[in-house]
Write a structure and sequence with these properties.
mainly alpha
């Protein structure tokens, strides 16, 4: 429903939870008014909700090309030399790992670790199978052609060198950018376990914003009677993400005036209009 509501642009990354209460069915709202989820628990449906049809197609197309290339390569495997057979054994193992990723993706929420694993495996296997054509005479010919292409600079001269110069920083920076959220999560967890409020507060407000970490930090501060630290985090949550229902509920807890609480309740009802408990309150 989220993807169909915005089929071109989607709802945006990390906004599934904020949109869930608007798009859940009346039946779900009546059965479980307080039930919350921030994922469809399906990698591809999550991407469809995040970025609509363009993002979904951009994800599915390389997968279909890998499957096509793998299917076309099956009759050629028997003609490889012993050295190439060893390489093919490695490729088979990676292909099985990739299939495991696909099956896991059907029931897992979208997360960066799973996404990077899938992107890397898909890209590697596409590089292996993507150039295979139906009219190739033999597997040996296909293998030699791919080996030549991997020569890069030898095949394309200066253009190959230029291509590598531009691609090298990209491949170096991608893992750094990808691991940054994982490192922040680890530091945040250490701060919580060690009772280090300064670290927890700093990471909760760091860039790029992670509303889940912000919510967890605010809840932890409230439970430890440090509403002075929780309130700035919560206010940033709702200012930067007005659709964050969890943030508005936390703000209602720490708000000091009845007038503000009334405004917050109206906002909560607007974000969760099908909740029977809110309608009757």
């Amino acid at each position: 429903a989220m993807g169909l509501d915005s089929p071109i642009f989607g709802r945006g990354f990390d906004y599934f939870g904020e949109s869930y209460f608007l798009f859940r069915s009346e039946r779900a709202a009546v059965r479980s008014p307080g039930l919350y989820t921030d994922s469809a628990h399906n990698y591809f449906i999550d991407l469809f909700a995040f970025g609509g049809i363009p993002l979904l197609l951009a994800t599915l197309l390389p997968i279909l090309l890998v499957l096509r290339g793998k299917f076309l390569s099956i009759p050629r495997l028997q003609n490889f030399s012993e050295e190439n057979k060893a390489m093919e054994a490695v490729i088979r193992g990676l292909f099985l790992a990739w299939l495991g990723f696909l099956f896991q993706a059907l029931l897992s929420p979208f997360n960066m670790a799973l996404a990077y694993l899938g992107f890397l495996l898909t890209g590697f296997l596409y590089g292996r199978f993507g150039g295979i054509k139906k009219n190739e005479e033999s597997s040996t010919k296909g293998f030699k052609r791919r080996a030549t292409l991997r020569g890069g600079a030898k095949k394309y001269g200066k253009n190959g060198v230029i291509l590598k110069v531009f691609l090298a920083p990209l491949f170096i920076s991608l893992p750094i950018l990808g691991f940054q959220p994982l490192i922040a999560d680890a530091k945040f967890r250490d701060g919580i376990e060690q009772g280090n409020g300064e670290t927890t507060y700093r990471i909760a407000l760091s860039q790029p914003k992670n509303f889940q970490l912000m919510r967890y930090a605010a809840q932890t501060f409230i439970e430890n009677q440090r509403e002075d630290l929780a309130t700035p985090i919560i206010r940033q949550m709702v200012e930067q993400n007005p659709g964050n229902l969890a943030g508005w509920r936390l703000l209602e807890r720490v708000s000091k005036t009845e007038a503000e609480k009334a405004e917050i309740r109206a906002k909560i009802l607007a974000l969760d209009p099908k909740n029977p408990e809110l309608k009757n309150s």
